[in-house]
Amino acid sequence: MPRPDTSPDRPLSVVVVGYGFGGRVFHAPLVAATPGLSLDAIVTADPVRREQAAAAHPGAALYSSVEEAWAGGHDLAAISTANITHVPFTEAALAAGLDVVLDKPVAATAAQAQELGALAADRGRLLVPFQNRRWDSDIRTAVRVARSGAIGEVHRFESRIAKMRTVLKDGWRGSPVPEDMGGMLYDLGVHVVDQAVQLMGPVASVACWARSIRPSDPTDDDTTIVLTHTSGALSILSVGQVQAFTEPRMLLLGTRGGLRIDAADDQEPDMLAGLDPASDAWGVRRPGTEAVLRTVDDSDAVTESRVPLERGAWTAFYPAVEQAVRGLGPAPVDIADAVADARILDAARLASQTGVVVTLDPPAAHQIGRAHV
Fold first, then answer.
1. 32 in helix, strand or coil?
2. How many CB atoms lie within 10 A of CB 65?
């Protein structure tokens, strides 16, 4: 299928599919802040969300159905809808000739994710997973320190995304139906797994404990995943909604020291507060958010210092998408990476169900050469 005109002097037309939390807080503002992209339409049938979309983006057309989006003559669809719709909506968008940014999780299984990637390739279109948390300030700082060699050979990575919610939120995220992909493993688990593979490398085996703690919650609300990397290093990942203590956000341990990060990335709360992603203040970390770096020399003398966190950079994602659609650069996230993440999640689900450590053969690995760090 031939591509539409993607000459640099014509902005690419974008339709945001879904105006729930993801579409409203993440995709629409980031698209609107990206030179070379034009937020031309938003799909939502909900009356309240239509009012919100009209107020925030008065220049965008409002569609009530995805069929209007596929027929609207747009170049790119940013799909941020209920998990169960990800596969059929993406298939339809690709068939209509659109490139696609797809929110996580891409699909319920690695096989489905791989099939979507093959369909995109067959159609000659881009399918870009929205793994925006690769550009969080905390993981960017961990990558910087690990690559610097300051703490020696990194052998352990701990990552925690913790919340305390005594009352279950309504909606499909709390659904026990497997196809709905509710619960922490498919919600926040996708992010911590993706970050761990980016930082620590290919994964050889997976152990997992996915539990439901709150009596009203039929899904996993307290999940721990342990990844053994091909290097022998471990990643211990925890996501939950019944955790009163949230720190540390990350802990990176090496043979010469370690890094502790307590302050979580603040781009999401900045979005919620209405900060413009195009502003000079975007992603800049505030005083008091510094990480603790502890190093040990050959005499076992300990040196401790505070190091600033890297700037959060979600705003790097859509400019890279725009360049990739024009054929001027690689996609910011490869669909093969989402397949690798899904293989790990498949293994985690099986490990939790059976109580055994699941071996990945071949190991699950990301593509190399990404510029997000």
1. helix
2. 11
Q: Considering the entire predicted model, what is its pTM?
A: 0.93
Structure tokens at 270: 């900045």
Where does the pLDDT of residue 178 fall: very low under 50, low under 70, confident under 90, or very high at 90 and above?
Answer: low
Please name every residue paired with 306 in a beta bridge, in sequence order, or none if there are none.
292
Q: Answer for the pair 225, 256: CB distance below 8 angstroms, yes or no.
A: no
Whole-angstrom distance, CA of residue 308 vs CA of residue 194: 23
* Cα Rg, the chain, nearest whole Å: 21
What are the CA-CA distances from residue 307 to residues 137, 160, 195 (Å)?
Answer: 12, 20, 20
Q: What is the DSSP string of 189-256?
A: HHHHHHHHHHHH--EEEEEEEEE--STT--S-SEEEEEEEETTS-EEEEEEESB-S----SEEEEETT
The residues pairing with 127 across neighbouring beta strands, listed in sequence order, are 100
Cα 265 to Cα 142: distance, rounded to the nearest angstrom: 12
DSSP 248-284: -SEEEEETTEEEEE-SPP-HHHHHHTT--TTSTTTTP
Mean pLDDT of the chain: 92
> Contact at 8 Å (CB) between 210 and 185?
yes
Peptide bond preceding 248 in cis form (omega within 30 of 0): yes
Beta carbons of 307 and 141 less than 8 angstroms apart: yes
Token representation of residue 188? 């926040």
- Residue 320 is classified by DSSP as H
The H or E element spanning position 43 is strand 37-43
Main-chain dihedrals φ then ψ at residue 354, nearest 5 degrees: -105, -20
Report the b/e string of 301-315 with b at 16+ CB within 10 A: eeeeeeeebbebbbb
CB 70 within 8 A of CB 94: no
Complete DSSP assignment for 66-122: HHHHHTTT-SEEEE-S-GGGHHHHHHHHHHTT-EEEEESP--SSHHHHHHHHHHHHH
- Rounded Cα distance between 4 and 12, Å, is 10
pLDDT confidence of residue 373: 35
Cα atoms found within 13 Å of the Cα of residue 246, Cβ hemisphere only: 10
Better-scored residue on pLDDT, 215 or 264: 264
Question: Could you report the per-residue pLDDT of 56-67, keeping only the tens digit for each?
Answer: 999 999 999 999
